[in-house]
Amino acid sequence: MSVQSTSGSIVEQFQNNADVAVDPENVEERVTTLIDDYQVPEAEARRSVVSHLLDEHEVDRDAFYDQSGSGGNDLVGCDEIETAEQWVDLEAEVAQLWEPKSEAIAQVGLLADETGRIKFVSWAASDLPALEEGEAYSLSNVVSDEYDGKFSVKLNKTTEIERLDEEIDTADGSESFTSEGALVTIRPGSGLIKRCPEEDCSRVLNDGRCSEHGSVEGEFDMRIKAALDNGHEVESVIFDAEATEAVTGWSLDEATSAAMDALDTTIVAEEFRSQLVGRYFEINGPKVGEYHLVDEVEESSQDVAFEADAARLLDEHFDAEMA
Hints:
The longest helix is centred in the C-terminal third of the chain and has 20 residues. About 4% of the residues have low confidence. This protein starts with a helix and ends with a helix. The radius of gyration is 22 Å and the shape is globular. By secondary structure, the protein is α+β, with helices and mostly antiparallel strands. Helix 1 packs across helix 2, helix 1 runs parallel beside helix 3 and helix 2 packs antiparallel against helix 3. The protein has eight helices and 17 strands.
């Protein structure tokens, strides 16, 4: 979706759901700045701008999002959700319940069906019936959310809950995938970052703001968003702090100290880029959305380079023959 389309949909959403006329030029400027200047993903940019406008115009969030979810929704699988702020219906089993870390949350856990698993949050203010672990439900009118490539769904005041009599075949959620190839680039959003400190959030801050909680004093974290070329395709991969330390040798404390000494957080990403680009790794972990999340990583031998290059040359040869 283009900047213009995203901006236009935000303007239309406020007109339809809150009867508020927001300045289209101001909205487009904010969206453009986040996406083009700060390399924020479109979904995160949209949430940030919407959150800012809700605060600026003092719009009731529950009422606003209740209106957003009106109308019929598609029935989707847990692993078929690929965009944020998508209103959908689910039929899933409650695979696991966790202890909420905030009084604002009534329940939090995992939903599962035959396609996979997804985290859910039920807000206390929504006053919904409690879900039971091991039971299957039809959940109508839930809204998707996303950060770091991980999707979740939120139950809200408009969500309708119906217990299902039949059992649901569920994926075990344990499947991991192995990829091997060259780390060809480190993408924006890597290095030393700050996350929202609010309980059960941890979104990456953009210019000191959380898309959910506004301006907050963030907590440092470390990650690498990269591209891994296996000779057939280029995968988007994410190393969390533990995996980042494993491949760079830098702990979070060391990265923070280096940035403080230089008065510049970008030096951490530059150090990682100089260390890693061009090296070959074998990674293992789940695929969530468009990202391959790194649970285990080992540096590969140089043979992988030749195999990847050979595979690419063969692909290019046969593509040329078919053209």
